[in-house]
């Protein structure tokens, strides 16, 4: 089935992932008169048995958060009403102690009105707003298995005495937890063993706080355990300019460390953040609301990964297939994410025309076929938001679209619109492989394009960040994930900043590591300009 295991680390990650899971839930069809969903739910969901013996279907995910970070979400409840241990036996709560037990509990956080409305089947009566959404669980629409919930009690959410910000805090926390319980054995292995054919692991994590260090240690352990399996990391960074100057410097160094670590252990690392440049006019975003900002990130992330969970073999592509198109030179593991809306009710449709091919060996034009025509340009007009910029805080101009001088090595694009043409031709894999090799040799971008008529669902849990026509419940999306020479500029800018911010004992190692990463996006191609060279 080519399952994917998801790991969520921290508040920012859980906000983005909650939008992701809400969208996956919207693809389910419960009416026999409806056409089957094109999404294979078994990729991200697992079957099980609930507390009362009924069949359940819950996300295949692990959710880590600090004390108080789960809001009104209960580990035991909904589908699982009684506390069941890993072997299926109810937990007594007393262990080997047979004496009296005094239980002390913190006050419970009340469920949001939206959550209570879902339980009562009247969610429309409780509209969400930036004032009512306090935690990611406030707009959550799915049930989770109890094994998915992992609360970390060493730190408390929002604590000013022990903020979870420093890199060393994340390293120490992982070392402590792994020493006590062996995280992979307790949390990961049981999920992996349930899979028929695990295609990869995706990790949502903070990209510039202590969660980045926790994720770095976690991914290193995953890589030791799962070898060459695809491990994709989505690192969510704080917006530029937020926080005091000292906090911003700390985040910059953390982001640099994260990129340095992920370039070694991750199959693909995609930094995410709301860019400081002006957003399109059709977007109305409250930058102080994680509910808003995470929704914008999630719509692009969920769209670009859609090919990994499509039901039909002719369209499905796994993590490894996407990595092949992106990691052209073998050491390009950092990619940037862009997107734009295509609906006429939101934004003008602007897709670059497909040029005719002059090569009779070009692959068939299929939903998931490599676009091979010489001279093809990326469909930039509709990609009006760049959601990745590698934390290059001193170079805000780099946070927009591709610079005209950027060289694109590889890209994966998807267009989700009801008007997308459907083609029944099968892809000749040998033909596609030959096309990739020929374009690499010629220094041309390797572009893999997908089309789907499945548009993005705008649920009642999704914030009103778009200028929509009344009654519009779906929107068309164009998303792109690419490796380009512009990443080298961003990493070099980060390298210059950390050379004065990082501790003396790590400064040289970190600077050299970032230098090697930036060179990977110049290998085999030079812009002819040395203005960014040291």
Query: What is the annotated CATH architecture?
Result: 3-Layer(aba) Sandwich
Task: Give the CATH H-level superfamily.
Answer: Tubulin/FtsZ, GTPase domain
Residue share in β-strands? 15-25%
Strand order of the largest sheet: 5-4-1-6-7-8
Name the features:
16 strands, MtDNA inheritance, partitioning of the mitochondrial organelle, Rossmann fold, 534 residues, single chain, six-stranded mixed β-sheet, 11 helices, alpha/beta
Please, could you describe this protein's structure?
With 534 residues, this protein is of the alpha/beta class. The chain has one domain (3-86, 113-520): Rossmann fold (3-Layer(aba) Sandwich), CATH 3.40.50. Helix content is 29%, strand content 17%. The protein is built from eleven helices and 16 strands. The strands form four sheets. A six-stranded parallel β-sheet has the order 5-4-1-6-7-8. A six-stranded mixed β-sheet has the order 10-13-12-16-9-11. The chain has a two-stranded antiparallel sheet with strand order 2-3. Helix 5 links the parallel strand 6 and strand 7. Helix 1 (11-26) packs across helix 7, helix 5 (210-226) runs parallel beside helix 6 (245-265) and helix 6 (245-265) crosses helix 11 (504-520). The longest helix is centred in the middle third of the chain and has 21 residues, at 245-265. It is globular and about 70 Å long. The N and C termini lie far apart (48 Å).
